[in-house]
Amino acid sequence: MTKSELKRAMVLEKWIDGRLAEQDVARILGISIRQAYRLKAKYRHGGAQAIAHGNRGRKPAHTLADSLKQRVMLLYQERYFGSNATHFAELLAEHENIHLSVSSVRRILLEGGLRPARLRRRPKAHRPRPRKPQAGMLWQIDASPYAWLEDRGPMLTLHGIIDDATGEVVAATFRPTETLEGYVTVMIEGLRRKGVPLALYSDQHSIFHPPKGKPTLEQELAGEPPSLSTFGQALADLGITHIKALSPQAKGRIERLWQTFQDRLVIELRLRNVCTMEEANRVLPELIAKHNRQFAVAPQNAEPAYRPLPETPLEHIFARRQYRRISGGQTFSWKGKCYMPKPVPGVPRWEAKSVVEVRVGMDGQVWLWDQGRAWPCVETQATQTPAPTTAKKEAAPASPRKPAANHPWRKPFSSKQLQRSTASG
């Protein structure tokens, strides 16, 4: 018997002995006088056991069958291990046609010792930053290295962008490591799908912010702009305000996205038996769409803040940029190779020894950039590797001599040289 039942038996016994009145019994037990007389009749007829609850020891009619509990625990151990209770309940309904509440699933896992009992979160000591009112006002970009394929494949890094106003994952892709190519891929995909956002939130990785990007006091007094990375130059061309977070908590929305993905995406990839990066990127759009349908929210203002894309192709904007000198033969060097702009009828030749801007895309394609237009370049025969042949060996063409370190072409260009070359061009 419980403590409350023992208390009832003791009070009823005193009432029967005449030591308590009926009003006192009802007040002590917190029941009506009518209910007190019912309990007194039961106690006289059957003793203390008669006032115990009638369903004690019986199995409830709505309880889950033991066979169902065993099946749920077996499925968790064999297919869905590692998923939380909410995600596991969704997977059971989606793949196994087992519809259980999240609390029932959590109780089954705790009874079987398959999930640890988590402590309640501490109350937040600060108020989180509210969402932006319009979609496209702020994107958050980051990358998360993790064992996304578990022991079935290599370690991968997931690059992604999330919209601050809606929580929608704009774009994502897997890469072996955190690279510029990965960030450029998700940015181009997001820009083509949505448009140009107003601002971008990132960490202080050297891909976004070069170590020597902050100008010195002399440069600030001279009015010289700070040096930008390849990614930063592209953002400046698109007119996107770049905000650099000083801590992971500052861009907490995408940090919480990685926690959700590491909890759910790993299970989804396992169920599809994904073992390579190519397969993961192939099924990723389907998983991202599923995530957005479930977790994305409507913005406060339905009208988005996106701007239209520029006329310049995005591949030309998100490209590595360097300055080179044009030789008398209309060639320039890049990473030990010699390139030449494709001749175009009606276009004059570039002046020898003039400084030109060279842009190299993420796929290795080289362009010569002049007055907002990209001129495709080809590798000259002097640096191309001849095709293997079984015929008689011919003498290889002499490769151009590499200029000496103290040659004028090898010296860094000053601002006056750049202005003189631009004016002459």
UniProtKB/TrEMBL annotation:
Residues 381-425 are annotated as: Disordered. GO terms for molecular function: nucleic acid binding. One of its GO terms (biological process) is DNA integration. Residues 129-321 form the Integrase catalytic domain. PROSITE patterns: INTEGRASE (PS50994). Residues 381-390 have a biased composition (Low complexity). Residues 414-425 have a biased composition (Polar residues). This is Transposase. It comes from Thermobacillus composti (strain DSM 18247 / JCM 13945 / KWC4). The lineage of its organism: Bacteria, Bacillati, Bacillota, Bacilli, Bacillales.
